[in-house]
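Write out structure tokens for Methylglyoxal synthase.
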Amino acid sequence: MLKIAFIAHDRKKDEMVNFITAYEHVFTDHQLFSTGTTGLRIMEQTKLQIHRFMSGPLGGDQQIGAMVAQNDMDLIIFLRDPLMAQPHEPDISALLRLCDVQGIPLATNVATAEILVKALDRGDFAWRELVHKYKPGIDQQGDVK
């Protein structure tokens, strides 16, 4: 079971809901997270259960970023609106940087998201389970040392 986060800017929320609906079967066996409104919209249209953080501008991006910083997130689909300035752009940049630092796969558009979701469906993310298994402070059985 992987930890997957969904984030979508306002003008991308419909696109996110449509995308998640199309691949709902892939996400059912994973632990899902989202910023507030995006998660609510997805849950209204699917049977998926999502842990919702705050809205992005109110700190939701940073809450997801905190999980990324701890290498406790496995995949992020963040449908960004490149044509609209965002008031919390520094938070967005920090999240993208953290994904690069920790090597967390991140899709910022539907084309890349589809490639990652198809890889997820094939089982190509098994390497993330090893990341968690051998985290510092965790033994091979998953217990805290």
